[in-house]
Amino acid sequence: MPNSWETKIKEIYADYQENVKPLIYYIERKFHRFPLSLLNEIRDVFDHISRCYEPYANQKYIDKNIEKAQNHFTRIKLDAYKYVNDVKRKDFVKWKKKYNKYDLQNINDGDFWKHILDLEDEAERLFAEAKKQETKDVNESYDLFYLSADKYEQIDNLIDEKRQFIVKAKFKYRQMTFFNHLTGFIIGIISSIIASVLYTDVREIIQELFQKIIK
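Above: the chain sequence. Below: its structure as C-alpha cells.
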C-alpha cells in the first residue's frame, strides 16, 4: 500500500492529466506559446513534490510540501481557466461583432439571440465575482472561473447547434445587400438619363428664347 502522501501526489498528477493538460493544450493552440505564469507554477508544484523524496524528510516536512504543491496546483487550474476565459471571451466578441449585422434576432422567434446574450451576461458576472474571490478564497475563485468558461462553452454549442440558421441569415443579408446595391445602381442610371433629358430640353428652350431675343 502506498503512503497517504504518495496517494495525494498521484491524485495531483491524475488531476493534471484529466483537467489541466487539456486546458494548457487549448491555451497553447490559441496563444501559440506556453504562458510563463503557468510554467512557473508547474515548476513550483514539482519542486515541492521532489522535496518529499529527500532522504531525511519526515512526515511533517512531507505534509507541508504536499500542501504547498496542492496550493500551487490549484493556482495552476485557476490561472488556466483565466486564460481560457480570456480566449473564449475575445473569440465571442469577435463573432458577435462580425455576425451582429445579420438578422439573428429572428432565429427561434428571438430566443436564440436572447439566450446568447443572457449567457454572456452571466459569464461576465461570474468572471467578475471570480476576480473578487481570487484574494479571498482561491478554491471558490477557481469554481467561478470554471463556471464562467462553461457559459462561453454553452454559447459555442448553441452557435454550432443553430449553424444552418446563421448561414441562412448571412446569405439573406448578402442577397439584400446585393439587391440594394443593384437597385441603387439602376436608380443612378435612370436618374442620369432623366437628368440628361431634362438638361437637353432646358437647353433647347433656352436656345429658342435666345434666338427670339436676337431677332
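The chain is about 85% helix and 0% strand.
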